[in-house]
Design a protein that fits this description.
The chain is built from 16 helices and 30 strands. The protein is α+β, with helices and mostly antiparallel strands. Helix 2 runs parallel beside helix 4 and helix 3 packs antiparallel against helix 4.
């Protein structure tokens, strides 16, 4: 890859290294310069630019990042679209992140252009939480480095996966000494049930007996089958020959390990009985606060019960403290992940009168067996948008009827005659409060691909100044446009037959232009001639471009 000053005659196709503002010219870093861009720079009096130019041995940053991210992503891992050489990976299920740290390190050591950053191995994760990010440092990576990374990722299965929690059945035995109050034992049941249910399991049985080796042995033998047996002693285990370990062995089980380098939680006992795990609980397990028992329970619930060696390696990071950044599945509900996928609602505006079409409602016009509006809706459904809202108006019942089998929310705009702004206002009012942003799609733009929406979502990062994301092709801005929630009030205040794009100029400092190789962002169908020509070009549905929705 060439990087440095380029004279304007050599700059077409190069990637701008730094943002430029010269009079009416305002180009951002990373822009691939077109012939018209070069002409505009020449008219602004510039003779050269600092830019990067790829050669045949390079792979562009987005393609390189996507290939590596796809190669490393395993079970229950979702790969986002690439933007500026970055691809984020998110959890597709609740569970534990499982890494092959040696292979992650090996990929990071291939070339300085290739980087992967992850959460720690065995980190508990929630659906949508960010697990890792792949970043190509410059504007491209050597093809050889990308291929080597893919080869390493394929050697032995993907090195990054989420192990989803399984619905465990759990039994609990509590021993008691004279003077122990039933209220203490009752509280232990409540805390244990909450722990187990937090991982999708069920506390199926609870029993009590004297804190005596013989009594506990009999109770263990009488317990109904369960995936996991927990034993909470009235007195802490002090030795491998104490009441709990002795009773487990007398009942036919084995004691694998006693003690763990985690505090609180030091006095945990790890055993086996009938091929199923048995845990002798430390006293801190009666409290809902995080302790070593939680770490072991998480791994058992994820299908990876730790053995003696794994428990002994838990010391690094094993000094636990209740701090706000440590997620806790109990006590006050689920913790909000610090890093998560943005929640974006796709808003499809399908309320217009189609006045330039005469008596025909273009949105209902059949194109290869499906109404025109279905293409925009299906692209939104196939994207990474969390929810899809369709705003109806003119012939609203008919529009809703042809889309009735699709998992969308319908909002009717009775004031559709007031223009596009009224439909935008109606749609924004229905956006879920949990949504961070909205991507406004137009029902008469049938060539917009789901990949375009995904790329806008990938670019969206309000903390980094990318709060409004607009797609561009050959220097021209198109649709759809993604808007951060911070602009909803301004968008709802617009009147007349116009959308929110006029606000873009007022917030240029928060704008991100997202280059896409897709002319569909400029293509709408608003005349009978355009509808006829579009229909003639469509021979069959194209899920790769128009999107396909689950179900």
């Amino acid at each position: 890859m060439f990087f440095g000053p380029l004279s304007l005659p050599d700059a077409e196709g190069a990637i701008l290294a730094h943002s430029l503002r010269l009079g009416s010219v305002s180009f951002k870093k990373g822009r691939r310069l077109s012939a018209s861009d070069v002409a505009a720079l020449r008219e602004a009096g510039l003779a050269e630019v600092i830019a990067a130019k790829l050669n045949a041995a390079d792979i562009g940053e987005d393609t390189a990042a996507s290939r590596i991210a796809t190669a490393v992503a395993g079970e229950a891992v979702q790969v986002a679209a690439a933007f500026t050489g970055r691809v984020n990976l998110f959890a597709g299920a609740r569970g534990l992140l499982r890494l092959d740290p040696a292979r992650i390190d090996a990929i990071n050591a291939i070339d300085e252009s290739v980087t992967i950053a992850t959460l720690p191995d065995f980190a508990p994760v929630e659906p949508g939480q960010m697990l890792a990010t792949v970043k190509i440092i410059p504007f491209a990576a050597p093809a050889a480095a990308v291929e080597q990374a893919e080869s390493l990722a394929a050697d032995g299965g993907q090195p990054l996966a989420v192990l989803p929690y399984r619905p465990l059945s759990v039994a609990l035995i509590q021993t008691r000494l004279p003077g122990v109050k039933d209220s203490v034992l009752d509280k232990t049941i409540v805390v244990t049930r909450e722990r187990v249910e937090a991982f999708g399991g069920t506390l199926v049985h609870e029993a009590r007996c004297d804190h005596d080796e013989g009594a506990l042995t009999d109770r263990i033998a009488a317990m109904p089958p369960a995936d996991l047996l927990l034993i909470a002693g009235a007195s802490a285990i002090t030795d491998r020959r104490d009441v709990l370990p002795a009773a487990i062995e007398r009942a036919g089980g084995t004691v694998e390990h006693f003690g763990m380098p985690v505090d609180p939680g030091n006095l945990l006992l790890l055993g086996q009985l009938g091929g199923k795990p048995v845990l002798g609980l430390p006293g801190c397990a009666r409290s809902p606060k995080l302790n070593g028992f939680d770490w072991v329970l998480q791994r058992i619930a994820a299908g990876k019960p730790p053995g003696r060696a794994e428990v002994m390696r838990m010391g690094v990071g094993g000094l636990l403290a209740e701090i706000p950044t440590r997620p806790s599945p109990r006590a006050g509900g689920e913790a909000e992940p610090q890093l998560r996928a943005p929640r974006v609602t796709a808003l499809v505006l399908a309320a217009g009168r189609s006045s330039r079409m005469g008596s025909t409602n273009k949105l209902l016009a059949e194109v290869n067996g499906a109404p025109l509006v279905a293409r925009a809706v299906d692209a939104a459904l196939a994207s990474q948008a969390a929810t899809v809202i369709v705003v109806t108006g003119h012939q609203g019942e008919s529009v809703a009827r042809v889309l009735a089998d699709r998992p969308v929310t319908f909002v009717h705009n009775p004031a559709f005659g007031d223009g596009l702004s009224s439909s935008l206002r109606a749609g924004l009012a229905a956006v879920p409060s949990a949504s961070d942003a909205v991507v406004v799609c137009l029902g008469d733009m049938p060539r917009v691909a789901s990949a375009v929406i995904d790329r806008l979502i990938a670019a969206y990062a309000p903390l980094e100044g990318r709060a409004i994301c607009v797609p561009t092709t050959h220097g021209k801005q198109g649709n759809p446009v993604l808007w951060d929630r911070a602009y909803f009030a301004e968008m709802a205040a617009i009147t007349g037959d116009t959308g929110a794009k006029r606000l873009i100029g007022q917030h240029a400092d928060r704008l991100c232009e997202v280059p896409v190789d897709d002319a569909g962002i400029l293509y709408d169908v608003d005349t009978p001639d355009l509808l006829a020509r579009f229909t003639a070009t469509v021979s069959e549905p194209d899920p790769a471009s128009a999107g396909s929705w689950p179900g």
